Hints:
- By secondary structure, the protein is mainly alpha-helical.
- The chain has helices spanning 6-22, 24-36, 45-56, 58-64, 69-84, 89-114, 117-122, 131-155, 183-200, 204-235, 244-248, 250-275, and strands at 161-163, 166-168, 173-175.
Amino acid sequence: MPKINISRNLWAAGLWLSSLVLFYSPLANLLSLAVNDDRYSYTLLVPVISGFLLWLKKEEIQKSARFSPALGSPLLLAGTIIGTIPANLSIAMFGIWVFWLGIALSCYGVKALRAIPFPALFLLLVIPAPSSAMEQLVRMMQSASADVTAGLFRLTGISFERDGFVFGLGKLDIEIAEECSGIRSATAMFISAILASHLMLQNRWSRIGFALLSIPVVIFKNAVRITGITWLGLNVDEGFFVGDLHKYSGMPFSVVALALLLPALWALRRVENQTT
Length: 276
């Protein structure tokens, strides 16, 4: 087991704690955004997951670690400038990411960084998408969910008239609103797929393909959920439109989406094993 340099780790911990003070304002804004807007709640988990992935690599990091303040200082300076200049939150968080990268480079060196490319790049997900980009993404998810829902309505014999995201069902209308777009489950599933592909797959294109596959699977899952609730509301009890199934069925259907993804992961892993 590589010898642990306590001094190096103390320097890294001290610099990281100082970053929490230095960048208090943008970090507080990110926390507020994540708590008050479910579309960004995933950002709170990103540093935790990235930290866990770094912990898994601790022996490899310690083995090749070298103090490199001359290399890391420019990143620390650049991160400080970018992270503290008044700007939007996305730019500020990018600056914080650069600063944290500078800590790793200063305290552990280039070779150690080469051992942790995925945790370092994964941490980029802590940068929240600008509100305009998020709104466009939500609209795309709404549109895709509406298109697939329309197809499932036809397959299940549900008569409807469509006007954008609104479906006329005779005596009532339903709308695929932003809350029904599936953006939160899509984000969670996409991040989960990235992690699963990193841990289980070796080929770069297999990893990318599996991560991207999570998006249509979530859209299909979302449309199945909407279609199922609509069918029950029309044929069993209208209370299904506003009942507990409508409010709390997100998690059970996410399990369904996961069940659809696992065979694809197994197949990709098997193909990789056969080609190596």
